[in-house]
Amino acid sequence: MICRAAECAACLGDFMGNALWSQPPLRRRTLLEPIDAARSLRAPSTVRKLLLNSIALMTIAIGTPAIAQTVTGDVTPPLPWGPGQVLMIGSNAVGTVTIAGGTTVDVGTTILADQPTGDGTVTVTGVGSALNISAGFLVGNRGVGTLDIVAGGVVTTVGMDIGATGAANGVATVSGSGSTLGVGNMLLVGGINTNGSASLNVTDGGRVNSGQARIGGGANNTTYGNGLATISGGDAIGNVSTWEITGELSVGSGLYGNGTLQITDGGKVTSDSGIIGDQSFSTGRVIVRGDNGAGTASVLDIDSELHVGRSGEGSLTIEAGGRVETNYARIASQAGSIGTVVIAGADGAGNASILQSQETIQIGTFGVGELTLTDGGIAATDPARITFLGGTAGSSGTLNIGARSGDAAAGAGELRTGALNFGVGTATINFNHTGEIDFSTGMYSVGVGTHTLSHEAGITTLTHANLGFTGATNVIGGTLIVGRGGSGSLAASNVTVGNGATVAGTGALGRLTVQSGGVHAPGNSIGTQIVNGPYILQAGAILEIETNAAGQSDRVIVNGTVDLTGATLRVIAESGNYAAATDYLIIDNDGADAVSGTFGTITSNLAFLDPTVNYAGGTGNDVVLTLTRNTTAITSVAQTPNQISVAGGLNQLPLTNPLLLSVFGQSAEGARQAFDALSGEVHATLGSTLARDARFTRGAIFSRLQQAHYAGAGASGGSTETAALGNTSTTAVAGRFDAPMMGLGMGGSERASAYDAPSASPLVFWAQAFGSWADADGDGNAASAKRNIGGFLSGVDTHIGSGWRAGLALGYSRSNVSVSQRISSAEINGYHLAAYAGGSVGSFALRTGASWSWNDIDTERTVVFPGFLDRVDADYDGDTGQIFGEIALPLGAGALAYEPFANLAYVHVSTDRFTEQGGIAALTGFGGDQDVLYSTLGVRFALETTRGGARVVPRASFAWQHAFGDVDPTRSLAFSGAPGMTIAGTPLARNAALIEAGLDFALSPSATLGVSYNGEIASDIEDHGVSGRFNWRF
Question: Lower CB count within 10 Å: N or C terminus of the chain?
Fold first, then answer.
């Protein structure tokens, strides 16, 4: 125990001894020199004592924090230690040693936790701190051993065993920049710890160097062992965590050994050679995953050979952008071994996970090997090298593109190699992927083993000749396309197509058997495929043949017998202008035998052409398909009223009319698409558009008359509250008496004397701008339509006596209409003229008006259906006339003004005759009329308030509108040379809510700024507009 009172002479000697003897020899000599000098001074004892105490305190300040070794508990021998000494730490109990302060300690054999009850820990921390062991180092011999090398510490040893024997548990951690573990010979992670565990953790830029390395197994390869090594991440300046092995790396090395190596987050392991699953009954696992977040991949780099399952069971997983590089990769390299490699995915930057072998990749050399390439993972050799499957008799090699056989399909990976050889063992390539891929690697049968190409899911195109592949091809699911653009074949392979699967393409096949539910679709689009052997379509199998109007079709050339008994012929005809009857050679039977059996079912996608088959056509034993115009009425496939009208119009055309023939060459669905495209529906939709948009002129007139009524009320001494309802979207620009039209406190009785009475009959000029955007839903017959409109109306009115005013207005608008489902659009330029009058009848306000609009209409249509394209346009005029009236009852409640109102409007729309310009789909439109009556009931509100000294009027209006009459617009149209057909457009809403909300601000006694929203909302239409206005009185 050291006394804290340094001046205590009794404790000074003990204190100095402990403080000084804990220092290295050179530092100890340096500290003793001033003490010796102080003792030799000729001074009073108290002075000497004071000097000695000062030196002691300095020793505390300088010497104590830099203590070289801290020792606690069960540690033998005691300090000091020297080179060659055997150091036992925590042999039977807890013992710890910490080496810090830049000190180097040299010892001999070092053992942590020698006995089962032992618990030994060594920590080497700080730059310059080092533990050098001239012999072996056991981290957890039988008990719990821990080694921490951190913050730049260094440990070197001849050999190391972590978790050495029995139930030992050993953990070694090397963490941080400059932290290093150097092992001259063998580094064992889990020697023969049958019931214990061992782990090596290299993180945050730590570094390990060793001559050889075994994880999970003893040095002689004959012992048990459980070991885990994790090499992960890097430091802040880009140094990655690293394990460099100059000799062999073995994971799962001992008999019954169990080892795991994890390389993650940019860590790196290098070795001369690598074995995963080294000895019989051993299990080795290696995972190489991800990057460090800055593009540095996790890497396992093996200079010579990498064995995944040499005599034991080995697995290698490369994922999330990890990389494994080697000169030669062997999967299941010896008899009895099992090797599994999975390469999957990419890192966040899209860098694929990869196994790169400079020489060959052997899958199942003597054992059972499997390589799975999924989700973009890559296995690659030098382009001049090859990949082997099932190299020797009794071996098994499987390559999975996507997922393993029987598992759910996954994204495909990629094999980059010069060729794929199938050896004398069992060799299988399995395609079980999502999406569509090309497989360009040539496949060769180089031995007499069992060779299989299995296709379970996805669409795979084989683009290599594969003339040397003689194994079986089993198409279990998905689509296998053999050959495209003149390349690719399985000419020597017997192909079997199962239920739900398809084989297609232009490449040659060997014998072809299509089972019930399987599909043979020769050609890519329209093409020819050769079958070198018997061609067997079992009962329920499907031959899918494409045809076109030019007389071309898919074809199968058979160098063998043909059996079609009970199969189905499915004809998929391209749309086009078909002749009344067209023949197609679909099976060219080069053999001498007649075709065996007939199709049990023949189907076609064309609605107006029937397929028939001659089984003795061509040279006498060929199969010939004929498509013949049937008696199906063109109207029979139409469903909606518009489609029925168009079909009826087409039916009046001559049978030689090219437009009619284009429809005859359609499927039922294609014909309905043609009817919709040909309908000219946009012309009918314009009728409802013009009728609905008449409300903008009507609304502007009502707004002006409402404004004039309340302005007059204010000038004649009416209430300030009701005058607030004069806030409308109309802008008045002249007229003194009309000044209180906006309310805002300017129309009350207190201001009335400042203005002339209505009888003064001044002229008032006003203007209103409007804009709106509408979406109108279709009704299952006509398609949906979109419309946007913008315009203005400007007018002048005067007092005509008895509180009534009358006036005229002119305006312009431009709108665009789009019917996207019919690829049609229109532009409307409208010119407006209106007359109006309004005044008081007792307590009621009466407002009336009429308007006429001249509309210049331009339309464009693109007529598209399968095999047909035309563009047409038209330019014609249309008129909109309306008369309208409203009655309202102005009321007030305190500061709130409101008025219930009701109005009626009759709208008449007429359009002129026109003829579209363009191709054969052009229509003639006859003049048309549409009449609609609108009734509206609602209430308006306004409230005059003051905010911050400024007058503010919030206002709102809510109304219900009902439409009568021609709410379903129609137009009479005709094809050239045919009578008219009636086509309906997008309907009007029978019932709709009309909503208006606005806010006006008085900027000065003569200027007002406002903003408002106007909406028409119904179950099948939404029309929204926003307007801003500025009002100025002068």
Answer: N
